[in-house]
Amino acid sequence: MGFGKIITFSHKPVADGDGDFDINIHGHHHNTEHHPEDAITPKHRLVFVDHEYKPINLKKIVEGRD
Q: Which residues pair with 26 in a beta bridge?
């Protein structure tokens, strides 16, 4: 739990029915339809990791800010 939210961290999006969470922070998504079960909802936050490997502000992610 963080910032009043239940957060699930995963490689790819977790379906809404696959656990009790408010936000799913994940780092994998395709812009094709070969994974229709990975539908992105407002509960999902896609995090792009750049090659600088610097810290990311979790509060900004939870609040939906860049």
A: 10, 46
- Identity of residue 30: H
pLDDT tens per residue, range 38-50: 556 777 777 766 6
The secondary element (H helix, E strand) that includes residue 46 is: strand 44-46
Distance CA 9, CA 39 (A): 16
CB of 26 closer than 8 Å to CB of 15:
no
pTM of the model: 0.65
In the three-class reduction of DSSP (H, G, I as helix; E, B as strand; rest coil), residue 25 is classed as: strand
CA–CA distance, 50 with 16 (Å, rounded to integer): 27
Higher pLDDT, 36 or 1: 1
